Amino acid sequence: MKVLAILVLGFSFMFAAVDINSASVKELSSLKGVGTKKAEAIAAYRRAHCFKNVDEIVKVKGIGKKILQKNKKNLKVSSCKK
Questions:
Q1: Per-residue b/e over 45-68, b at no fewer than 16 CB within 10 Å?
Q2: Rounded to an integer, what distance in angstroms lies between the CA atom of residue 46 and that of residue 22?
Q3: Which of 3, 4, 7, 13 lies closest to 39 in space, CA to CA?
């Protein structure tokens, strides 16, 4: 049963766009080239600044243009709730 739950969760991360204004650290770390530390940096950045578009993710320390390009089709930005 646990294996099935992990598979379902994994597939949902693979095919669903990650909203960088609301995603959890776990969801953010599912992105290519983004581990836990970078995911935490994204979450910390958005607590101070909302993302207006996906290109702004490069403002986060440790996130460069290569990571953006690898993940751009899997990213989205919801409206800011600040």
A1: bbeeebbeebebbeebeebeeebb
A2: 9
A3: 13
Tokens representing 63 are: 């996130």
2-41 pLDDT per residue, tens: 665 555 555 545 557 999 999 999 999 999 999 999 999 9
Concatenating the DSSP letter of every residue in the chain gives: -HHHHHHHHHHHHHHSPEETTT--HHHHTTSTT--HHHHHHHHHHHHHS--SSGGGGGGSTT--HHHHHHHGGGEE-PPP--
pTM: 0.78
12-76: CATH topology: DNA polymerase; domain 1 (1.10.150)
Alpha carbon of residue 75 to chain centroid: 7
- Whole-angstrom Cα distance, residue 1 to residue 75? 30
